[in-house]
Design goal:
Elements (H helix, E strand, L loop, with lengths): L3 E7 L4 E7 L4 E7 L4 H4 L1 H18 L7 E8 L5 H15 L6 E5 H9 L4 E6 L3 E6 L5 E5 L11 H17 L9 H11 L8 H4 L5 H5 L1 H10 L3 H21 L5 H4 L5 E6 L6 H11 L11 E7 L4 H12 L11 E8 L8 H9 L6
Parallel strand pairs: 1-4, 4-5, 6-9, 9-10
Antiparallel strand pairs: 1-2, 2-3, 6-7, 7-8, 10-11
């Protein structure tokens, strides 16, 4: 009897496949190649996913025929037609071995890893995206268009912003607000070049979005030394991420706004490790600390589990399969903001807010 549930988180850089029992116990988990259907192609993405799901099943000693359903939260899946097309390709690949597939946007995997009561999912990894799910299931999205249109606030955006800022400064086209020498030297070392003309093959002929995005880590380390230009770029990235959330504000339900602990914002992606550099720009866009803040209360969550858990939950729900999990233990609040207005804040709450400022280790 089929009794295992698979959850897949397919990002722009890696794919995580997790196998669960119906009681929520994780049997196995493997990491594989990116499976965005638009960058890989739908057929190629389905073939990759079959390989990676099979590897995860083998790692847990599970037969494919024992898998009752698969939930997949994939980057690039932005509408119903895309979901159906991907599900069709998966059924073709797996034939009759596995029949139940549910494909959704990767941001949904993060939101449902927090639970099934709604929230805001904010992705800033290789790319960026922001999705609102209200408690009644209504959804609204901002972003997720990819780097050719807009990946504002992502690792790729930060890296390319640094490159463009220095090049424009050297060209005399637009002067940088701070000295460019440290960022320039870091870029030359990372990309193995001696001048900016040599960046052209990296950006065009041998283009790799994930390779360019990985330069963001070097910039974060530079910002950690106090270097001003890299810190300015991260602040700008924080503004961009804040604008994603601000765009969804008109659609957030009263029920979600009034939730104890504030509106939950699930933060997904390595860029949030640099929250201390993003924070000021993010809060400024949302009007925090001003006379008219956009939100009265919100909390930012770092997941303990990968979004493959949320994908598994959605897959089981669609297939009407039992899946039990204690969602109260799937995240930690790393930052909370609350507008006290004219009220004097409670001392206990103030202590909680101070302790939750920063991602920590």
């Amino acid at each position: 009897m089929a009794s295992f549930i698979v959850g897949v988180e397919g990002g722009s850089t890696t794919t995580i496949c997790s196998v669960f029992r119906s009681d929520g116990t994780k049997v196995s988990e493997v990491e594989g190649k990116p499976t965005n259907p638009w960058t890989n192609g739908f057929e190629a993405a389905a073939k990759l996913l079959k390989t990676e799901i099979t590897q995860a099943a083998n790692a847990g000693g599970v037969q494919l025929s024992d898998i009752s359903c698969v939930g997949l939260a994939l980057s690039g899946v932005e509408d119903e037609q895309c979901s159906r097309d991907m599900e069709k390709e998966l059924r073709r690949e797996f034939k009759d071995t596995v029949k139940n597939f549910t494909v959704v946007n990767d941001t949904l995997g993060g939101i449902y890893t927090l639970g099934d009561s709604g929230g805001v999912g904010l992705i800033s990894g290789t790319g960026s995206n922001c999705l609102l799910v209200n408690p009644d299931g209504r959804q609204h999205q901002c972003g997720g268009w990819g780097h050719m249109i807009d990946d504002s606030g992502s690792a790729y955006w930060i890296a390319s912003m640094a490159i463009k800022t220095v090049i424009k400064h050297r060209d005399g086209f637009e002067m940088a607000p701070f000295p460019v020498e440290s960022v320039e030297e870091t870029a030359f070392t990372f990309f193995g070049i001696n001048n900016w003309k040599q960046i052209l093959p990296v950006m065009y002929t041998n283009f790799s979005k994930s390779k360019i995005a990985s330069f963001c880590k070097e910039l974060a380390e530079l910002a950690g030394t106090g270097e001003e230009l890299s810190r300015w770029i991260f602040r700008r990235a924080g503004e961009q991420l804040g604008r994603h959330v601000a765009a969804l504000e008109p659609h957030i339900s009263t029920e979600l706004r009034d939730r104890p602990g504030g509106i939950p914002i699930v933060c997904i992606g390595r860029v949030f490790v640099s929250w201390n550099f993003l924070q000021d720009g993010f809060l400024e866009v949302l009007g925090c600390g001003g006379h008219a803040p956009m939100f009265k209360d919100f909390s930012m969550h770092k997941l303990r589990e990968t979004p493959s858990l949320g994908a598994a939950f959605l897959g089981a729900k669609a297939a009407k399969q039992p899946f039990q999990y204690d969602f109260s233990k799937t995240s930690d609040v790393f930052f909370r903001w609350k507008d006290f207005g004219l009220e004097k804040p409670d001392k206990t709450l103030m202590a909680e807010l101070q302790c939750s400022d920063g991602l920590g280790e």
